[in-house]
Predict the structure.
Amino acid sequence: MRFMIIRKADKATEAGEMPSEELLTAMIKYNEEMIQAGIMLAGEGLQPSAKGARIKFSGGKPTVLDGPFAETKELIAGFTMIQVKSKQEALEWVKRWPPLDANGGVELELRQVFEAEDFGDELTPELREAEERLRRQASDNSKL
């Protein structure tokens, strides 16, 4: 089972404040523990929403709204992808998140990722093959 740990944005992340050396050290140690346990697939921090954009489609046509965005509680500052055996195991790892983050007030969200088998018969053998091919290509792209 794959899960995404979502680090919610706050005023500091939206202001572009960089983490302290102490927090970076703690995050690297946490990530290293997950990698050594064989569960971490990816993890990245995100730039503030001021450097991003929202794209909303209406009638199939896109409208672009440049950041920043007012509601920080709706934004994310980063993510970690893990692969574990259960939601309980994922929660145990999330509970080990470095307590220094956001001066002890960090908000995280845990979301399970859809797997191919979750789509049932609608994911035909042809679509499954195409999806697997795209995953391989995306993996190759990440090595560039």
